[in-house]
What we know:
Layout: H1 11-42, H2 45-61, H3 64-81, H4 85-121, H5 125-139, H6 142-157, H7 161-185, H8 189-213, H9 229-238, H10 240-302, H11 306-343, H12 347-360, H13 364-379, H14 383-404, H15 406-409, H16 411-435, H17 437-440
Amino acid sequence: MAIHLHEHFGYKKLLRFTIPSIIMVVFSGVYGAVDGVFIANFTDEAQFAAVNLVYPILFILGAFGFMIGAGGSALISKTMGEGDEKKANEIFSFLVYFSLALSLLIAVVGVLVLRPIVTLLTADPTVQNHGVAYGTILLCSLPASVLQFEFGFLFVTAERPKFGLLLSVAAGCTNIALDALFIILFQWGILGAAIATVCGYLVGGAIPLIYFLHKNGSPLRLGKTRPHFRALLKTCTNGFSEFTTNVSVSFVTILYNAQLQKYAGLTGVNAYAAIACIGFIFLSIFLGYSSGVAPVIGYHFGAKHQEELRGLLRRSMVLIGVSSILLFLFSLLLASPLSTLYAGGDSEMYEMTRHGFLLYCFSYLVAGVNIFGSSFFTALNDGVSSAAISLLRTLLLQVLFVFLLPLFWGLNGIWLAALFSEIGCLFVTLFLFLFLRKKYGY
């Protein structure tokens, strides 16, 4: 039976409503990690390094999909909570059409500037050529990938999280199956990986577009609209934290790679890629829960249900606290077998990945509260507070510690930079929760 945004959410209903979003984001992390396993084990070090250097650039170019998805979801759910479903559908349609047009433009520009950017990241001509070839193929699918990111949020607002999960699984399975076919059987290397990823994006981006263009039984449908530039501005303000999170993570990954090349060479770059892939799977639980509960928070905020807001915050903090401890313990247990998946028989790669992961995983004890805090304020349409948390967590503190800590602890300092960043951000998140509670009535 479908759960609607206007209902009361206890622990059981909260988990039932958010689990599809959690699984969807976790599965996205899993198939991204599997993609990395195929490349690490069935291509050479230069190809794996090329993917790890180029992918952050592509993620930056598509990051506005998260901004429009998260910010639009908050605004649309708030508008629905206020009782204006016609306007909510117009805003929904305008945002989807706008992001589709913008992604096409960015893809064209991206192809033109890709090689100069890759040349700045590495002096190795072999890595450069692999990176440009891989990046060009993925840029051709940028509109589909942006829509997939965007609809990941909007399916929850449309009260269809299970269908969003189904499409995410279908996209991931398509990617994994074609990885095996193109990389192992056809031996196309990272070009095969790129084509497989494009096919996955087409499943995850094109099918939702078709779904929302027809009658679908949900509150949202793509149709005629008019320019809603004020709504677009509000959407971008609401979702700016999600945009900065993804841009910052990608930018910081580039900085990590630069530092790792200095301290550990290409092996360090590839070890960090493995740690980041594994880490994203674990953090996906927090990301999925936060995106899943955000429309509920936005609806009750728009409807001025203050008691419900307080309950949602309290229950969310309990769930995140328990999950943080469990994830940390699982990380300690799984560090060795997960590192083996990416080592490809390379003992140096295995030991560096295992050791780095054991230090990096301490950040999971803190990250969940910060991730939820940013999403919580986005749902309240407070883009400034949300962006402040996001910028501190994913950019400002990360840049500070990834350059500062290695001066004292060498390579270990790079692995610990995430933990120090999360701890520093936690103080700001908790302060904002306390300082703004009267303003928003939670």
